[in-house]
Amino acid sequence: MLEIDGLTKIYPTGDRALQGITLQLPRGQVLALIGPSGAGKSTLIRCVNRLVEPSGGAIRLNGTDLTRLGPAGLRRARRKLGMIFQEYALLERLTVMENVLSGRLGYVGFWASALRRFPQRDVDEAFRLLQRVGLEAFVDKRADALSGGQRQRVGIARALLQDPDVLLVDEPTASLDPKTARQIMRLITELAKERGLSAIINIHDVALAKAFAERVVGLRSGEIVFDGAPERLSTAV
Ligand code: ADP
Ligand code: ADP
């Protein structure tokens, strides 16, 4: 369970990106975060894993306030937060398998993956995940040889190898064509359900949010302006 309580972020520039966000994400729930550019979606996701330092409020993951953790605690907590990025953030010159294995190190350790030997059980689990996302034939291909949709599948497998509690997904489809975008959203939401993971998916395509998420939260100017089932979403957000 992830609980965000009165979260604020004021950037050094004075931008008030989050103005007191409170929401609770129960275990297993898939939430889409929508809103216009500049609404604060990225800032919210990045505050949860502390790529951005919150200015105020609390973020509790299974009871632990992430905003109060020191470096070691934060490293541990981040293993429970699986990140999936718009631009994939793959290691381009490494293979698909090496990229997925880097998930074991948490994203702070991505660069170290080529230098490490991983236990066979990690390799087996990575292979199972690659089968599940449909990339078993690409295990030894270099990341820079893949299409956008294939790269995002690698990103998904990498996040899942971390064995996270929560998936934090930042605009996963913004660089993809519409058909591939739907496939990727389907894959992320199905895998979250299969594994009982909660997910926050930052997506500004409202139709995709409605099609795949069970709950939609609308942000505008750093505030929640909608929180409910996708069917209740009017065009007002
Ligand atoms: P998106 O809407 O896809 O999140 P943005 O164009 O808002 O993309 O932001 C792109 C990058 O620039 C992000 O890393 C964001 O943190 C940073 N950024 C956005 N707005 C500002 C700003 N006013 N000053 C400095 N950096 C910014
Ligand atoms: P979204 O993801 O919804 O497009 P962002 O979280 O990127 O929104 O941005 C929210 C607000 O914070 C915007 O006004 C943006 O300009 C500002 N912002 C984002 N990143 C930075 C940054 N690194 N420095 C200063 N302002 C930023």
Structure description:
With 237 residues, the chain is α/β, with parallel strands linked by helices. 32% of the residues lie in helices and 24% in strands. The protein has seven helices and ten strands. The chain has helices at 41-48, 71-79, 96-101, 120-132, 148-161, 178-195, 206-212; strands spanning 2-10, 16-25, 30-34, 56-61, 64-65, 81-84, 166-170, 198-202, 215-220, 223-228. Strands 6-7-8-3-9-10 form a six-stranded mixed sheet, with helices on both faces. The longest helix has 18 residues, at 178-195. The relative contact order is 0.20. The model has no long low-confidence stretch (mean pLDDT 92). One adenosine-5'-diphosphate (ADP) is lined by residues 13, 15, 37, 42, 171. This is Phosphonate ABC transporter, ATPase subunit. It comes from Truepera radiovictrix (strain DSM 17093 / CIP 108686 / LMG 22925 / RQ-24). GO terms for molecular function: ABC-type phosphonate transporter activity; ATP binding; ATP hydrolysis activity. Keywords: ATP-binding, Cell membrane, Membrane, Nucleotide-binding, Translocase, Transport. Residues 2-237 form the ABC transporter domain.
Topology overview:
Layout: E1 2-10, E2 16-25, E3 30-34, H1 41-48, E4 56-61, E5 64-65, H2 71-79, E6 81-84, H3 96-101, H4 120-132, H5 148-161, E7 166-170, H6 178-195, E8 198-202, H7 206-212, E9 215-220, E10 223-228
Parallel strand pairs: 3-8, 3-9, 6-7, 7-8
Antiparallel strand pairs: 1-2, 1-4, 4-5, 9-10
Bound molecules: adenosine-5'-diphosphate (2 copies).
Residues 13, 15, 37, 42, 171 line the site of one adenosine-5'-diphosphate.
Domain ABC transporter: 2-237
GO molecular function: ABC-type phosphonate transporter activity; ATP binding; ATP hydrolysis activity
Keywords: ATP-binding, Cell membrane, Membrane, Nucleotide-binding, Translocase, Transport
